[in-house]
Design goal:
With 177 residues, this protein is mainly alpha-helical. The protein is built from six helices and no strands. The chain has a domain at 13-92 and 133-143. Helix content is 64%, strand content 0%. Helix 2 (43-53) packs across helix 4.
């Protein structure tokens, strides 16, 4: 019997849908906030794991308040994680936002078959959001493992407090009056 039930092993469909809708914006924001540094690319996955760990509470709060609490929490955790990442850097991080290139030219891919050229146009052949679904699963597993370690830490702390309380109580009883 649990006061608060543990997390499920698999991410719920609502979380996967949330990640699918927010992953592109989150990845672009994280890339922009770290100044394009490839070492900072792990930030968006850490932010998704933070949201996954609080998903039930955020979903409940969204229903109760009528706002997108998960989206607000996502932005908050992105800024907190970015600030921590910048504090951990040895050298000062210079972030410059450059204007997008004008007249982007996509080079010709060479000779491709008709099937490969038509595949993006046919609805049954395009698998959108596969990366986002994978990111959602990875973030959920990271949050699940973090929740398991927190449970182990709570059990150890409870055991230490109980043993300390028993020792204190026994020493109080043993004092001659």
């Amino acid at each position: 019997m649990y006061l608060v039930p543990p997390m499920d092993d698999e991410p719920p469909p609502e979380f996967v849908a949330f990640v699918v809708t927010h992953v592109e914006e989150l990845h672009a924001s994280a890339h922009e906030l770290v100044g394009g540094d490839p070492a900072g690319d792990h930030l968006y996955m850490d932010v998704l794991a933070d949201v996954a760990g609080h998903w039930r509470r955020l979903r409940w709060w969204s229903r109760w308040s009528g706002r997108d609490a998960a989206g607000d929490y996502l932005k908050h955790r992105l800024h907190v994680r970015t600030a921590r990442w910048r504090d951990d850097q040895i050298y000062e991080v210079d972030v410059r936002v450059l204007a997008p290139a004008i007249g982007y030219y996509a080079p010709h891919r060479g000779r491709a078959s008709i099937a490969l050229r038509k595949a993006p146009l046919l609805s049954g052949t395009v698998r959108g959001g596969v990366t986002a679904v994978a990111d959602a699963g990875i973030a959920w597993v990271q949050a699940y493992r973090r929740q398991q370690w927190h449970q182990v830490a709570r059990l150890i702390a409870t055991g230490i407090i109980l043993i300390g309380g028993m020792i204190q109580y026994m020493s109080w009883l043993a004092v001659p009056s």
